[in-house]
Amino acid sequence: LLLQLGHTAPVADADLYAPRGKDPIVVSVAEDDLIKVWDAERGTLTATWPWKGERQPKRVLIAPGGNVALIFPRWSPPWRVDLQTGEHELLGSGRAPELEALCHTRDRKLVAVSRSGEQVQLFTFPGMEPRGAPPVKKTGGMAECAFSHDGRVLALGDKGGRVSWYDVRKNLEPLDLRDMDLAMDGLAHKRGTQTWAIKGRKDTVLWDLTTRKSTTSWRSQGSHGFVAWHPDGKRLISGGHGTRDFRLVDAATGQTDV
Questions:
Q1: How many other CB atoms sit within 10 Å of the CB of residue 221?
Q2: What are phi and psi of 168, to 5 degrees?
């Protein structure tokens, strides 16, 4: 299945929302100033909205319920966008430090945010109030971050290709640090396992946090992209600037369009 998003410019970010008992959806934002909402199971677009912010969007998070998304431009506070009507609301004012990386727990109650010159910090979502855990001291400029499926582990990938893991239950106590030698594009945890998908611009690696070894790898499709586990646990949704669309990838073989 090839999921055509219809953007006329590179995709900046996308978020997968897969509530139990409902079809999964993806919201994508791109440099063509369009917000796309699509059915990830059927591969069909369900809505297209024009982006109304002054600065180009960089990150998107779908709020619980799937009707609202928070869209984060690179240099300003986030916007709340109603996915049913396209209505926009700016949450804050002024210029913010450059947004580097952002991710959320599966229940969408906790968000990790990294901005230029600052530490990585946890916030409640969608209220965006700082959480009590101490900020994480960055090893370098952040490229990607992801929580484990149960929200107990936070993974951070820096621009130098290093990935570090932290225990959320123990005030972000470090668990592991690995140099993957990858230009980081995406991180995603597989439910019920210790397996993490690490997408680089050239290669995608599956990493086992328990054995601390790679289980398989393959050439990535596109760059500056996105990766997430499909709800069936056997495939990945992966894509990027090189393709301007997203493909389903067999996690065992790396074969696309499955």
A1: 21
A2: -65, -35
Q: What is the spatial distance between Cα 243 and Cα 157, in angstroms, rounded to a whole number? A: 23
Burial zone of 201 (CB within 10 Å; 0-12 exposed, 13-18 middle, 19+ buried): middle
Q: Which two three-digit tokens encode residue 54?
A: 């002054």
| Bridge partners (DSSP) listed for residue 27 | 15, 37
Distance of CA 187 to the CA centre of its chain: 7
Average pLDDT over every residue of 48-72: 90
Q: How many CB atoms are closer than 10 A to CB 24?
A: 17
- Angstrom distance (rounded) from CA 12 to CA 6: 14
CA distance linking residue 222 with residue 45, whole number of Å: 21
Where does residue 11 fall: left (phi above 0), alpha (psi -120 to 50 degrees), or beta otherwise? Answer: beta
Cis upstream peptide for 77 (omega within 30°): no
Q: What is the pTM of this model?
A: 0.74
Report d(CA 50, CA 29) in Å as an integer.
Answer: 10
59's CB contacts (< 8 A; 6+ apart) are: 12, 13, 29, 71, 72, 99, 102
In angstroms, rounded to a whole number, what is the distance separating the alpha carbons of residues 140 and 241? 24
Q: Are 176 and 159 in contact (CB under 8 A)?
A: no
pLDDT in tens, 111-159: 998 888 778 889 888 778 888 788 887 767 888 889 999 999 999 988 8
User: Considering just the CA atoms, what is the radius of gyration of the chain in Å?
Assistant: 17
Q: How far apart are CA 30 and CA 57, in angstroms?
A: 7
| Helix, coil or strand: residue 105 | coil
